[in-house]
Specification:
Elements (H helix, E strand, L loop, with lengths): L18 H12 L6 E3 L7 H4 L8 H5 L4 H9 L21 H10 L8 H13 L11 H12 L6 H7 L2 E5 L2 E2 L5 H8 L6 E2 L2 E2 L1 H4 L6 H12 L6 H17 L4 E6 L9 H12 L5 H22 L2 E6 L1 E2 L4 H7 L7 E2 L9 H7 L7 E4 L5 H10 L7
Parallel strand pairs: 1-2, 2-4, 3-5, 6-7, 7-10
Antiparallel strand pairs: 8-9
Helix pairs in contact: 11-12, 13-14, 14-16
């Protein structure tokens, strides 16, 4: 019988191969290797920590169906999402046999060779779950059973893993309309882990959100502000930011296709907002209103001290067939070329010289680092 191939993860696997560079990287890494983790941006569900007995489910439910980095690779090689346990709005039913889904994943695990996702999965399997054999079609069920056994243990509840991984603080990403009930439950519990919310108002800033008017109604309810005009909308946003800050938030987070910013007059903002309420906002309205709200966010951050984070350059839900059948965020987020210098000029000319404000720019376009981001951050006090 052929012996299974072992997972091989050398300690220096993330460093470049050039000897002097690797040596310098190792020296730097050793200074921080044992420090606690500070996780300022993430998408972990706070429910995991609100319930001390939260169950992470089966290996399939943990590794495959919630992770678009995993199932997008398999989909790209012709494997239907239904076979991976994802339910479509119409069409074939989703596979519900957890072992069968895992077997499909394992049969195709070779597709992840040389990818960041593959490196991360192998790290999880070996260092978190103690799996020593490489995942393959032949080892699939034995590894499934080993992970299942681990997940049934108290040591694999989210709170226990939080402590095992030495996480000092972890932030979630929460919509402006979120009541933060799970965060409140965490804070009222006797558990000492620090889980902080982050204010992300994309669902009410972006007029092309599919259910935008419904989101505005919810914003009105949770803020206690009747929203029938732009001024009421701003008042509601400021109220929500204050509530998030009371709950421990230290930052806001924003996603847009481009970093376009523009200062609208109150009249222009009101006219666009009213077209949004009437379902008549056009593409230009969407772009201008989002760009204006980024400036308003910078103003609010100067007043309440929240760090402002901006994620741009992702063409979301690019695959319209998948979007129509499965909904948003199903692995079809594609990077785009991004221009910062002109797009951010209105914001930077208004707020860029005030060191009380911090704006952190994230990018998927690596070509812009030396061309624009480094020169901008090397001049404006607010930019990181």
């Amino acid at each position: 019988m052929t012996q299974p191939v072992k997972i091989f993860l050398p300690e220096d696997r993330y460093f470049g191969p050039e000897a002097a560079q690797k040596w310098a990287a190792q020296q730097l890494y050793q200074t921080v290797a044992d420090l606690p983790l500070i996780c300022p941006h993430g998408h972990v569900d706070p429910r995991m920590f609100a319930d001390p007995d939260y169950d992470l489910g089966s290996p399939t439910q943990l590794f495959i169906t919630p992770d678009h980095y995993v199932f997008r690779m398999l989909y790209s090689q012709g494997i239907p999402l239904e076979q991976l346990g994802l339910s479509a709005r119409q069409g074939p039913p989703a596979e519900i046999d957890q072992r069968k889904i895992w077997q499909t994943f394992a049969d195709n695990f070779h597709l992840f060779r040389g990818t960041p996702t593959g490196m991360w999965l192998n790290h999880e399997l070996r260092d978190v779950f103690g799996v020593t054999d490489k995942l393959s079609g032949a080892t699939a069920m034995a590894i499934y059973d080993q992970i299942s056994h681990c997940l049934a243990q108290p040591a694999f509840r989210p709170r226990a893993l939080f402590e095992r991984f030495k996480v000092e603080v972890l932030t979630t990403t929460d919509m402006a309309t979120d009541t933060l009930t799970h965060h409140q439950a965490i804070q009222e519990s006797d558990w000492g882990g620090r889980i902080l919310p982050t204010f992300r108002p994309d669902n009410v800033f972006n007029l092309d959100t599919p259910d935008w008017r419904s989101q505005i109604e919810t914003l009105s309810q949770v803020s206690g502000v009747t929203i029938h005009n732009y001024a009421g909308f701003i008042q509601a946003i400021e109220a929500r930011r204050a509530f998030f800050k009371e709950m421990g938030a230290t930052a806001s987070d924003h996603s847009a296709l481009t970093p376009y910013t523009e200062t609208l007059s109150d009249r222009e903002a009101e006219e666009i907002f009213q077209r949004g309420l009437q379902g008549q906002a056009g593409a230009e309205d969407v772009t201008r209103f989002t760009g204006h709200m980024l400036l308003e966010t910078a103003r609010m951050s100067l007043e309440d001290g929240l760090v402002m984070q901006l994620h741009v350059g992702s063409y979301r839900n690019h695959n319209q067939t998948i979007f129509a059948r499965f909904g948003r965020d199903m692995g079809a987020d594609i990077p785009t070329a991004t221009e910062y210098t002109r797009n951010l000029a209105p914001l930077l000319n208004r707020f860029g010289n005030d060191p009380r404000l911090t704006l952190i720019l994230f990018t998927l376009d690596e070509t812009t680092y030396s061309r624009e981001l480094a020169p901008l951050a090397g001049h404006y006090p607010i930019l990181k």
